Amino acid sequence: MTLKCAIIDDEPLAAGLLKSYAEKTPFLELTGTYGSAVEAMKELRANPAHLIFLDIQMPELSGIEFAKILPPETKIVFTTAFQQYAIESYEVNALDYLLKPISYEDFLRVANKALDSIFTRQKQEAYSRDRFMFVKSDYKLLRVDLDDILYIEGLKDYIRITLNDGTKILSLMNMRKLDDYLPHPEFMRTHRSYIVHMTKAQTIDRFRIVIGEDYIPISDSYKEPVQQYFDDHTLV
Fold first, then answer.
1. Residue 102 per-residue DSSP state
2. 220/171 Cα distance (integer angstroms)
3. Facing residues of 171 across strands?
4. How far apart are CA 150 and CA 59, in angstroms?
5. Mind spelling out the 3-state secondary structure of 134-177?
6. Based on CB atoms within 10 Å of each CB, which residue in 17, 59, 121, 179 is the most buried?
7. From edge to edge, which strands make up the β-sheet containing 208-211?
């Protein structure tokens, strides 16, 4: 997967350093380097970037102001020499914040963070749109329809998917990543070892979700969002 990225910085030396970093990062495609947000505005409208390295202090239009008019799916990494802007940068939902002078190690860290975030979003969109996924089990790829899933249980390095018909599929998979990919709140983590297809819940009994003859625990760590889900679907 390749990410299109752009650099917006009115300091030529800082912009040049970021450009050299982008050009040697295999999964980044640098689409443009701009000296101001105003200069970048027209180009980015015609050729959007997945990721923008954006200076905060710039003439005419600051990086914070420019970030507010960018599409929400654009990942923003603020770059600045002034640490006091950190809190303000997160208020516009920035992916991260880099303090100048920027090392390649830090640049690569946030670039990988953007790659993971965009990959996860694309997976979520695919699962929500297509309503199925493939999982590896016994050296095969098995199709699993989301509507057939009752719940998913984490077993150390494996997961076990329980389906409507009682079928159980064992797969070597990361529970956290699966939780990221599945559409929310249709699928919710109720416990560090359980993800539940919430539309399949039949009864709530003493902080347990009852599905058929199975009781899935709700731990304190996940209690609040799970309770909110049921509150939203309760007639009072």
1. P
2. 27
3. 159
4. 55
5. EEEECCEEEEEEHHHEEEEEEECCEEEEEECCCCEEEEECCHHH
6. 17
7. 203-204, 208-211, 214-217
Q: Is there a contact between 33 and 15 (Cβ–Cβ < 8 Å)?
A: yes
Q: Per-residue pLDDT for the chain (236 aa), expressed as one digit of tens each?
A: 899 999 999 999 999 999 999 999 999 999 999 999 999 998 898 889 999 999 988 888 888 899 988 988 899 999 988 766 555 555 667 899 899 899 999 999 999 999 999 998 888 888 889 999 999 998 899 999 999 999 999 998 899 999 999 999 999 998 988 998 999 999 999 999 999 999 999 999 888 999 999 999 999 999 999 999 999 999 87
Give exposure, 5-28, as e/b (b: 16+ Cβ within 10 Å).
bbbbbbbeebbebbbebbeebeeb
Q: What is the pTM of this model?
A: 0.70
Q: Helices in 169-222 by DSSP H: which ranges? A: 175-181
Cβ within 8 Å of residue 208, ≥6 positions away = 215, 216, 217, 218
Q: How many residues does the chain have?
A: 236
Decide: helix, strand or coil at residue 109.
Answer: helix
Phi, psi dihedrals of residue 103, rounded to the nearest 5°:
-85, 160
| Pairwise CA distance, residues 50 & 75, whole Å | 6
> Kind of pairing, strands 75-80 and 51-55?
parallel
Q: How far apart are CA 30 and CA 42, in angstroms?
A: 16
203 in Cβ contact with 211 (< 8 Å): no
Closest CA to 37 of 14, 4, 59: 59
3-state secondary structure of 63: helix
Token digits of residue 210:
């009852």
The tokens describing 141, both together, are: 């790829």
